[in-house]
Amino acid sequence: MYIVSITYTCELTEIENNLAAHIEYLDHYYSAGKFIASGRKNPRTGGVILVSTNSRDELDRILEEDPFKFNKLADYDVIEFMPSKA
After folding, report:
1. Checking phi first, is residue 64 left (phi over 0); if not, alpha (psi -120 to 50) or beta?
2. Helix, strand or coil for residue 84?
3. Is the Cβ–Cβ distance between 21 and 69 less than 8 Å?
4. Cα–Cα distance for residue pair 62/84, rounded to 1 Å
5. Are the C-beta atoms of residues 51 and 35 closer than 8 Å to each other?
6. How far apart are alpha carbons 12 and 10 in whole angstroms?
7. How large is the average pLDDT for residues 65-76?
8. CA–CA separation, 36 and 19 (whole Å)
9. Which of 53, 60, 66, 72 keeps 20 to 30 A from 7, CA to CA?
10. Residues 35-67: pLDDT tens digits?
11. Are 82 and 6 contacting, i.e. CB atoms less than 8 angstroms apart?
């Protein structure tokens, strides 16, 4: 499982201009069973996605599809962890 921490590298107006496409991207991977939870950071400097994938390679491929990433609007920090309790 992975925690993806997204940090915006642009003005919020650019984020807002790409938000609908980002939400479509999120919805697709929720439907595919890959995304477990997501949301904005507070203050609004980025977001976080909790992801369940089979490998880091799969996660990297998924992240490349995010409009925020391919439009170079944010940086991504990935933390792998092994849940022991839920």
Report:
1. alpha
2. coil
3. no
4. 25
5. yes
6. 6
7. 97
8. 19
9. 53
10. 999 999 999 999 999 999 989 999 999 999 999
11. no
Going from the C-alpha of 12 to that of each of 17, 41, 47, the distances in angstroms are 9, 13, 12
Strand order, beta sheet including 2-8: 35-40, 46-51, 2-8, 74-80
Pair type for strands 35-40 and 46-51: antiparallel
Percent of the chain with pLDDT over 90: 95
Identify the pLDDT of residue 86.
Answer: 81
CB atoms within 10 A of CB 82: 5
Select from 80, 73, 70 the least CA-distant residue to 4: 80
CB 44 within 8 A of CB 12: yes
- DSSP lists the bridge partners of residue 7 as 46, 75
Mean pLDDT of the chain: 97
Nearest alpha carbon to residue 7 among 43, 37, 36, 35:
43
CA–CA distance, 40 with 83 (Å, rounded to integer): 22
